[in-house]
Design goal:
mainly alpha, Butyryl-CoA Dehydrogenase, subunit A, domain 3, Neurolysin, domain 3, 2 domains, three-stranded mixed β-sheet, 27 helices, 66% helix
């Protein structure tokens, strides 16, 4: 089984076909620009023609940028990929002016009337109305073009700096050089001394890069605050919610429910501390300590077999999809020097396929990560049945299928287990993950909120560390030892490093709890749920978050829904705490 992803269906090199396709893309950009810049009546025919050229651009440019982007993710030091990705950014920047012009042309258009004249416009009605709203937050044409160019040299460059800095971090651990991803993965090791030492080595390794990465993050957020203010937004969060097709009412309901449940998660963390032999709260480095009987590691083959079996337990369609993705080498599996950390899924519209990156080391959580990322890929598989320009979906709904598939995997594992030690291992791993996606995400949300408020000038690494520690205290309460937190969580998480995507934290909590709510619906009536599930995923590309949820009978503006999903996790927490007490006595 090939453990490096296959990119040959995109391109085999940056020569030949890649160069030819790049020339075609340049011509497509010129064609689009020529049409959009014409001073003509904005009627149904004109809008149709523009949209058709936008569809053409998606298939022309996305593979050109996708190929170097994926190569760079597996090897940040690949200069050829970096060079060609920069060329793609330049090509995208040429679309800024015509895109701005077309969007502004929609300001006074009666889209409601035109949708009845054109089935094409009706198909893209949600997209067009969203653009119409954004038109009122645009700068002048010249300013938008200038900012597009300047951001390549400012926020985009600062973001690249963070990627380069973290991807190239290595440290000596017990006489052996390891990448940052490998060191961070030791947090799951069964040996308590390994976990503690890895935590100490990790924190020490950041000291060589913290000052200039802090400068990068500080400048990105200063740019974010300034540009959002110029566009007439109250703050970057308002812009994020508009781009997410989600209301502040829904976000407040979500975050309010999470804050109410902080004590439930703190109780679990303190119970784990007691189980591990601590008298007080849990040290940060033992949050991921494995408990129970399962200490085995999984080969990649075993992990993929688990995923396929779990997916088939839901439906043949989902199972067949996982088999296709695995057998066709869509996945780049193992950590290596120069490879970015974490895991992600990247869709490739021109192929109607996806590629998944993981840093697989064989622990149970890696198996769940694999199920999670392939869930993203399945979402892409379904969304590719939409019209071309309806294949994008907002950040928080991007987690819908991934969390749902991870839940399928977790419950599949639990259904096979009777031994209490093994059950504890799997159940606690699920609670551990939920704690990260809910409480740690809350700490990141608090941190970014405070960071943006303080972004009227540069912030030092010391200030950022203190800000992160305070956010962790507020989120985790007394669940974690306040003397042993993680002050560098701002440095190692790439989600902070974009001027265009802010608050890329609450979507994970949204996705987890929305996914839990969906799974509860699935348990009540699995046949009806399966029949409507794919339709709901399709809707994520062409409606608001509230309407997507309503299609499944869920009202996300009400705190009650989020509380009901949190109660699903609380039941797991209660069982884990009970098993902690029972099995502690037997030790």
């Amino acid at each position: 089984m090939d453990t490096n992803w296959n990119l040959n269906s995109l391109y085999s090199s940056f020569e030949g076909k890649y160069e030819e396709d790049f020339k075609k893309a340049v011509e497509a950009v010129k064609e689009y620009t020529s049409l959009v810049m014409q001073k003509v009546q904005v009627d149904a025919s004109y809008i149709e023609n523009v949209l058709k050229l936008e569809e053409k651009l998606v298939y022309a440019i996305s593979p050109l940028s996708g190929y170097p982007s994926l190569i760079q993710a597996s090897d940040v030091n690949n200069s050829e990929a970096s060079k060609n990705l920069a060329k793609c950014y330049n090509l995208y920047s040429l679309l800024t002016e015509p895109s701005v012009v077309f969007t502004k042309k929609l300001k006074k258009v009666d889209l409601e009337s035109l949708r009845h004249q054109s089935s094409y416009i009706n198909e893209y009605y949600h997209l067009l109305t969203t653009r119409q709203v954004s038109a009122f937050h645009m700068l002048s044409d010249k300013e938008e073009i200038l900012y597009s160019k300047i951001s390549e040299l400012s926020s985009n460059s600062w973001s690249d700096l963070q990627s380069l800095a973290t991807a190239n971090i290595t440290a000596i651990f017990r006489g052996e050089e390891k990448t940052l991803s490998e060191i961070r993965n030791l947090a799951y090791d069964s040996d308590a001394l390994v976990r503690k030492e890895a935590y100490e080595v990790e924190l020490e390794s950041y000291k060589n890069v913290e000052k200039f990465v802090a400068l990068g993050l500080s400048n990105i957020k200063r740019e974010t605050v300034y540009i959002n203010s110029r566009r007439g937004y109250k703050n970057p969060l308002e812009n994020t919610l508009v781009n997410s097709n989600m209301t502040k009412k829904s976000l407040d309901a979500l975050m309010g429910a999470i804050r109410d449940y902080r004590k439930v998660f703190a109780k679990y963390l303190k119970a784990k501390a007691t189980y591990l032999g601590y008298k007080g709260s849990l040290p940060f480095y033992d949050m991921f300590a494995p408990v129970g009987k399962i200490s085995k590691t999984y080969t990649y083959s075993e992990a993929t077999d688990l995923v396929k079996s779990a997916y088939y337990s839901f439906s043949d369609k989902l199972g067949d999809f996982s088999k296709k993705a695995i057998e066709n080498s869509w996945i780049d599996v193992y950590p290596k020097k120069g490879k970015v950390g974490g895991a992600f899924c990247s869709g490739i519209p021109s192929l109607k396929e996806s590629r998944v990156l993981t840093n697989f080391t064989g622990v149970l959580s890696d198996c769940l990560t694999l199920a999670h990322e392939l869930g993203h890929a399945y979402h892409d598989e379904v969304i590719y049945t939409n019209a071309t320009l309806n294949q994008d979906y907002p950040m928080q709904l991007a987690e819908t299928a991934s969390i749902f598939c991870e839940t399928i995997m977790n419950n599949f594992l639990l259904s096979k287990i009777e031994d209490k030690e093994e059950r504890l291992a799997i159940l606690e791993n699920s609670v551990q993950d939920s704690t990260q996606v809910i409480i740690d995400i809350l700490s990141r949300y608090i941190f970014e909120t405070n960071l943006i408020k303080a972004s009227d000038g540069p912030l030092s690494s010391d200030e950022l560390k203190e800000m992160m520690i305070e956010a962790q205290k507020e989120a985790y309460l007394d669940g974690l030892d306040h003397n042993l937190l993680h002050p560098y969580m701002w440095l190692c998480k790439g989600h902070y490093y974009s001027a265009n995507y802010n608050f890329y934290n609450f979507p994970y909590a949204f996705g987890l709890l929305y996914g839990k709510g969906l799974y509860a619906s699935y348990k009540k009536d699995n046949k009806a749920f399966i029949a409507s599930y794919d339709k709901m995923l399709q809707l994520t590309g062409k409606d608001t978050a509230e309407n997507v949820a309503l299609s499944m009978g869920i009202d996300i503006t009400k705190k009650d829904f989020w509380v009901s999903s949190l109660n699903e996790i609380k039941e797991q927490i209660d069982e884990v705490i009970s098993l902690f007490k029972e099995l502690k006595v037997k030790k």
